[in-house]
Design goal:
Elements (H helix, E strand, L loop, with lengths): L2 H11 L2 H21 L12 H12 L9 H4 L2 H16 L1 H11 L6 H11 L7 H29 L4 H16 L19 H15 L2 H14 L12 H25 L11 H14 L15 H13 L12 H15 L5 E3 L2 E3 L1 H28 L9 H12 L14 H16 L1 H8 L21
Antiparallel strand pairs: 1-2
Helix pairs in contact: 2-3, 2-5, 2-7, 2-19, 3-5, 3-18, 5-9, 6-8, 8-9, 8-10, 9-10, 10-13, 12-13, 12-14, 12-15, 14-17, 15-16, 16-17, 16-18, 17-18
């Protein structure tokens, strides 16, 4: 039985959401096995099964939390395995597999399209094949250009040409997929905090990958109509794209201003930098919280208030249908629109001269409540699991760690390598839920009925709130 037949057989027995979950599980399992092989480690280093599984989960879920230093633990083969896991995890196996089917001339059936739809979290099933082609080609173009730029940068820092090339490719893929893995050392990008070039390239990749592929589709469509004067039809951005772009910009700007104000006098973070570098570091900190996980300042040095604000921003995450995790920007935008419409006395939720269905609001509320519950519950479980730990940490550090995992960010205040086996398992579960999405996982586990209850209308009764 070849891979195509196996995938088709799995599709017949599972719902699209279950196929997505099973594919992530499968890639993590294969990655764990490969990382346990002696050829994946540096000479003299032994890796336990839990650390191999943790690294594979972090890579496939594009998080970046690690229990072992990536640069010094893994051999070239191990780093290539991690790189492949990041790429597959960022795009999802369904997308990669569908692109493969297209190029070998196989028919992309309804189940394949539904799987892609579930992977991208898109309601409209039209143009799925074109979407896959655009995503794969766009991804490789962006990563390719960035890899060349980063390779040139590392070459200018006296790296050997083949090391510079591999460093460029690895960090381009890691940044675009919002993974946060680096092979520079154990301090991420802290050594380049004052380098505008590498900061701008990495931040651009983070935003491109985290903004969402459906936003790509809208922007590409708008550009095509702009460059064709003969076409009179307008191509406005969808409400989703407007929400994603505006919310992303607002969160980045607000986060930059906050970190500049709160950390400028902190000698452990921005206080040790020049004025221009302070703004660059504050901007990078705000952007990387969009679920990227690279760090240009030590996260352990942040004030307790900044750690809490960072946790909230990480939990929000990036935009739907991209490489980012978390609650998602559009979900937060829907809630703000609901509050705004309520305060204005509107009967419907409105934004940009459009009405938003109440089903979307219920979905947004469900996601927020589930994620907040997971955040608090995960923190409580982690605190119980790490009671005997000799590593010094605060409750805010645990909140930060769990938020980083659920938002698939990868930033840490330093406690990840010191986690117990149970603690690692908790963080692995949080990373998986954050990448797939809590609502998708819950719905995949709930058996669909014939929806008889949907046809029963119960009488309304008011309740007091507020």
């Amino acid at each position: 039985m070849n891979l195509h037949e196996l995938f088709k057989r799995v599709q017949k027995k599972m719902s699209p959401a279950q196929v997505v979950i099973a594919s992530f599980f499968g890639v993590i399992a294969i990655g764990s096995i490969l990382l346990m092989l002696p050829v994946s480690h540096q000479p003299g280093i032994r890796v336990s099964p839990i650390d191999a599984a943790f690294t594979a989960t972090s890579a496939v879920c594009v998080t970046g939390l690690v229990t072992l230093v990536t640069a010094t633990t893994w051999s070239l083969f191990g780093k290539v395995v991690i790189l492949c896991l990041i790429q597959i995890g960022g795009l999802s196996l369904g997308t990669v597999f569908t692109y493969f089917l297209i190029h070998i001339g196989k028919k992309v059936g309804l189940k394949d399209r539904l799987t892609i739809q579930a992977g991208f979290n898109i309601d409209d099933m039209g143009g799925m094949v074109r979407m896959v082609i655009m995503v794969i080609r766009g991804t490789f173009i962006i990563e390719g250009v960035a890899a060349v730029l980063l390779a040139a940068f590392f070459l200018s820092k006296n790296y050997i040409w083949y090391d510079a090339l591999f460093y460029g490719i690895f960090h381009a893929v890691s940044a675009f997929c919002n993974a946060g893995f680096d092979i520079i050392g154990d301090v991420s990008l802290e050594g380049y905090v004052g380098s505008p070039f590498i900061n701008i390239v990495i931040m651009s990749l983070i935003v491109f990958g985290g903004i969402g592929f459906s936003v790509w589709r809208d922007i590409v469509g708008k550009i095509r109509y702009k460059v064709r004067p003969a076409v009179k039809k307008k191509f406005p951005l969808s409400l989703h794209s407007k929400f994603a772009i505006i919310t992303t910009v607002v969160l980045i700007l607000v986060g930059t201003l906050y970190f500049w104000m709160s950390e400028s006098n902190n000698p452990e973070t921005l206080g040790k930098l020049d004025a221009s570098d302070k703004w660059m570091a504050a901007l990078f900190q705000s952007v990387t919280l969009r679920t990227a996980g690279f760090a240009s300042i030590p996260q352990a040095g942040l004030s307790e208030a900044s750690k809490l604000v960072s946790s909230i921003l990480m939990l929000i995450g990036g935009s739907p249908g991209g490489t980012a995790g978390g609650i998602k920007t559009v979900t937060i935008a829907i809630l703000f629109c609901s509050v705004s419409s309520t305060l204005k006395g509107y009967q419907r939720i409105t934004a940009f001269k459009r009405s938003i269905p109440e089903t979307i609001l219920r979905k947004a509320l469900s996601i927020v409540i589930i994620m907040l519950s997971l955040w608090i519950g995960g923190t409580l479980l982690l605190s119980l699991a790490e009671q005997s730990s000799v590593f010094p940490y605060t409750s805010v550090d645990l909140l930060f760690e769990v938020a980083s995992a659920l938002g698939t960010v990868g930033l840490t205040t330093g406690i990840t390598p010191h986690l117990s086996v149970i603690g690692k398992a908790i963080i692995m579960l949080c990373m998986f839920v954050g990448r797939i999405g809590p609502l998708a996982i819950i719905l995949s586990l709930v058996k669909r009925t014939n929806q008889v209850n949907e046809k029963i209308l119960y009488p309304y009764e008011n309740v007091m709130i507020g």
